[in-house]
Amino acid sequence: MTTPLLEMRNISIHFGGIKAVDDVSIDLMPGEVVGLLGHNGAGKSTLIKILSGAYKKDSGEIYVDGQKVDIRSPADARKYNIETIYQTLALSDNLDAASNLFLGREITTRFGLVDDTKMEAESRKIMARLNPNFKRFSEPVRSLSGGQRQSVAIARAVYFNARILIMDEPTAALGVHETAMVADLIKELKAQGLGIFLISHDTREMMELCDRVSVMKNGQLVSTERVEDVTEDDVLSMIIMGKKPGETVDA
Amino acid sequence: MGGLGKLIRTLQLDTRLLGMIGAFLLIALIFNIATGGTFLTPRNIFNLTLQTASVAIMATGMVFVIVTRNIDLSIGSIVGVIGMVMGLVQAFWLPEIVGFGSPVIIVVTVLVGIGLGVLIGGLQGWMIGYLMIPSFIVTLGGLLIWRGAAWWVTRGTTVSPLDANFVMLGGASGTIGVTASWALAIVGALATVWFLMRSRRQQMAHDIAVKPLWAEYALAGILVAAIAGITAIINAYQIPTRVLQRRFERNGLEMPEGYTEAYGFPISVLIVIAIAIVMTIVARKTRFGRYVFAMGGNPDAAELSGINTKMLTVKVFALMGGLAGIAAIVASARLASAGNDLGTLDELRVIAAAVIGGTALAGGVGTIYGAILGAFIMQSLVSGMGMVGVDAPFQNIIVGAVLILAVWVDILYRRRTGEA
Questions:
Q1: For residues B364 and B66, what is the distance between their CA atoms, to the nearest angstrom?
Q2: Tens digit of pLDDT for each residue in B102-141?
């Protein structure tokens, strides 16, 4: 068996008395899409925020390519090529697309000043690939549509050669056409060998895009299953009742 | 929008900037009529720039503070305490070591002033960023603490006279003369043209759409004309004949018949111009400036992008403190003395200048040139009303009303242009 691209082992975190994530282990192979499912508050977002460096875990270990890594901040996560597209998109509304795309990793001139012209040119290149309709490069992102803002957030994750991509509800704010574009992009990135964690409430979409699904409930991992081994109903019952397929529900 | 609107768009001019310049000119014209033509004399314009210098310097820093959704109420008091300490350093401590009139005095005093400002600002920034005490509270405390400290340092006495070299940094007694002023203006004009050409070349190199060439020439023409115009006005302010006569007599010479000489740019105004340029570059072309605006637009997004927003807060307040130090240098040098009321109410003037200049208290939006223009608008109102003979209480009422009106107009403008 090949080494997983990423492993999170026995991860726990609590806020006050509440165990938001309780001894959860998940992994991700290169070129694989793993869906994280569960109700609101099941701990999916908290788990991936530990991976992206926004939260610090209380216990557990993270391995990238079999090497133990220490992720304490978003900057650490970026160092290991872990990129995140947050549900809120995490854009600074007052800055333009290029400034957001390169935020925290600006291209600078030899005098150490930010090179806006170069960054805009690079933004145009990546956008031509991701969303050819995107033209509004010099406007603050607040004036863009939901789909355009989403493209900026995705471009930011993709541009810096992500190896592990976390997508938190990437299609929640999008129309039908744009949702299809994101699905195509996920397939393309997967073919390039990226590992992708996908969070969504849309079970059908997940069954279509993912190789495996991990279901969480009350901060614990219910089970991880290959999508071809389960039906959509199985997954729904895992989400709702917290039971693995085949287990009988006790009366 | 008709032809004018199209012209403004082609030239890629900032309509907010045009509006502010328009308001400024309107105020100047009204006062010029009301004073029977004395408001727009070279002499008054010269004095106006001197009076605005310290507030304008601090307003550039206040832009960063407000853009990051903070406020600094302590800067007036910081000016007070730094003025006092610098007064002691140059009038009592250093002369005993290096002797009166030594050029070491001005260097050390200036370094002490700026250093102390950075330290005080950084300390307050640390409490705001790392201890997470709201900036309003930290700097409200600072307002009392540093004013109290200024009082305590000299037990309330005023330090005077200050070092002769140091006093030159304040204004009327420190000007660079006509020739140097024109030389600077030429350098400035050349730099402006070079900068426009370079940014056009860069944009073309990356296939980014550029303005038509005639628009580029028009813009360069307007900017060069503005630089030349301001220099001509300042250079038109003649040194009074009596002053010149005394200077010749002091040197044992006879003043030639019809001899005239003008002041040229005051050093303090050159300091303002230098700070305006540096702060604009910092705001728009450095990572630090980019992060300041990113944090103001969305603090969470900034943090998730790997920006250390706590340290950024410390830096922003340290910068504000350093600028308060420079303002203290200019203000005490202009008065040639350091009293413990130096800088009183400056925090409110500076905040008003930044806000009139289009800095949004909600954060994320603000420009350096706006804040400086805001400072000039405020000072023009105050000194214009003084010249017309408006009573002091009415002056305050009008300035307060103008502040509220300016912010309301700004809100309307933002709503129309859709920048929430």
A1: 8
A2: 888 999 999 999 999 999 999 999 999 999 999 999 999 9
Q: What is the ipTM of this complex?
A: 0.87
In a domain, B420, yes or no: no
Q: Which CATH architecture has domain A1-85+209-224?
A: 3-Layer(aba) Sandwich (3.40)
Mutate one of B9, B202, B290 to test the A interface: name it (highest A CB count within 10 A).
Answer: B290
Residue B330 shares a structural domain with residue B198 = no
Q: Which residue in chain B has the smallest CA separation from A156?
A: B305
Same structural domain for residues B60 and B162?
yes
User: Helix A146-159 crosses helix A116-130 at what angle (to 10 degrees)?
Assistant: 110
B324, B117 contact by CB (below 8 A): yes
Which phi and psi angles does A220 have, rounded to 5°? -110, 155
Clarify whether residues B90 and B183 are in a common domain. Answer: no
Contact A182, A158 (CB under 8 A): no
**Structural domain span for residue B186:** 175-265
Phi, psi of B403 (to 5 degrees): -60, -50
Is residue B26 situated within a structural domain? no
The verdict on B417 touching A (C-beta cutoff 8 Å) is no
Q: Which of B117, B102, B43 is nearest to B266 (CA)?
A: B43
Task: Give me the number of domains chain B comprises.
Answer: 2
The answer to whether the beta carbons of residues B267 and B168 sit under 8 Å apart is yes
Which site among B69, B287, B293, B307 would you substitute to test the A interface, given the most A Cβ atoms closer than 10 Å to its Cβ? B287
pLDDT tens string B206-220: 777 788 888 888 889
Q: Which residues pair with A224 in a beta bridge?
A: A214
Question: Has residue B402 been placed in a domain?
Answer: no
